[in-house]
Amino acid sequence: MVPNWSNDGKPGPINAHAETVAGLSTFSDSFRERRCILPASGSYAWCVQGGKKRPHRFRLKGGGVMGFAGLWSKWKVDDKPAPFTCCLITTTANDVVRPFHDRTPAILAPDDYAAWLEAGTKPKAAHALLQPHPSELMEEAEANPLVNSPKNEGPHLLDPAA
């Protein structure tokens, strides 16, 4: 994310920690005024097994789309087109993710989407929505190793590891 006040427009962080997001200058304006939801079918974490990086995919049990808590900004520079940028918010890992990583995207409950997006939601109330997703609603599986390269694209990447 590039904060709207940035002087150089260099890309900034791709994620923000829920515990500090409201108090850091990079994110505080967006946390108050520009919250968004990033739709996703899953997230990934890597662990080393047998000397190889192995990706693991985390998703809702049974599949479906989840909404990651995010922030957006529109960087302003003279008369040039202003790019929109965003970052996702991470929180402490739940029991499903913790064996692989200590952080995970903050997954919003669908009933909380409106409050997260509502401009009138105070930062303290918005912060309360950034909790680890219940472990019993998630599942993990070793993922297709082709996800290790950003050169690879396509729905086949969602196939489980063979």
Would you give an account of this structure?
By secondary structure, the chain is mainly beta. It is 12% helix and 33% strand. It has a domain at 15-42 and 67-136: SOS response associated peptidase-like (hypothetical protein yedk fold). The chain has helices spanning 25-33, 113-117, 123-128, and strands spanning 15-17, 35-40, 43-49, 52-60, 66-74, 84-92, 103-105, 107-108, 138-142. The longest helix is centred in the first third of the chain and has 9 residues, at 25-33. The protein is globular, with a radius of gyration of 17 Å. The termini are far apart. Belongs to the SOS response-associated peptidase family. InterPro entries: SRAP, SRAP-like. Its EC number is 3.4.-.-.
Summarize the structure.
The protein has about 160 residues and is mainly β. The chain contains three helices and nine strands; from the N terminus they run E-H-E-E-E-E-E-E-E-H-H-E.
